[in-house]
Write a structure and sequence with these properties.
Structural class: mainly beta
Helix content: under 10%
Number of domains: 1
CATH architecture: Beta Barrel
Order of helices and strands: EEEEEEEEH
Strand content: 25-35%
Largest sheet: 6 strands, antiparallel, barrel
Oligomer: single chain
Number of strands: 8
């Protein structure tokens, strides 16, 4: 799989929390036609699929673990959490579209660091959102409490 774009700007270090309020650009590769982004600004949000390229392959999880290694939370399978140490190291985040200029798409609240390879960009459509009630365990809500908080020094 070859990245279609790269994240430019934002933070350079991976951290677990405080991704709120950030804006970055997703810049298409030079060999891709900027027309591939035509019309994207008519959507409020995009889903960005990206590669956790900074995860050490030796630290990939294929079984169960305590999220963020916190023993207060139950050990659950890697597919029951959104951690970066996944077998294929693929991340997915829905972010707000801010603007588009040429081959650059500016988005808000993408939890990927500067230089991250972007595998795909898809518009968020209501019809692809979950139908029915979304439920999650209490530990997941606790884990995510500060995830989208504004970045702190």
């Amino acid at each position: 799989m070859v990245p279609v774009a790269f994240v430019r700007g934002g933070r350079s270090a991976v951290r677990d929390d405080d991704w709120g309020g950030s804006e970055v650009e997703i810049v298409l590769r030079d060999d891709l036609d900027p027309a591939a982004l035509d019309g994207i600004e008519t959507f409020s949000h995009v889903e960005v699929l990206f590669f956790f390229d900074r995860v050490d392959p030796a630290k990939i999880e294929v079984g169960a673990r305590h999220p963020r290694n916190q023993r207060a939370w139950p050990a659950v399978g890697i597919f029951a959490q959104r951690g970066k140490n996944r077998p294929n190291r693929i991340g997915s985040t829905a972010c707000r579209v801010v603007s588009r200029a040429g081959r650059a798409l500016r988005v808000a609240e993408l939890d990927a660091v500067d230089g991250t390879p972007v595998l795909d960009i898809k518009p968020v459509m209501r019809e692809f959102l979950p139908r029915g009630e979304v439920r999650q365990p209490a530990w997941a809500s606790e884990l995510m409490r500060d995830y989208w908080a504004p970045e702190r020094d």
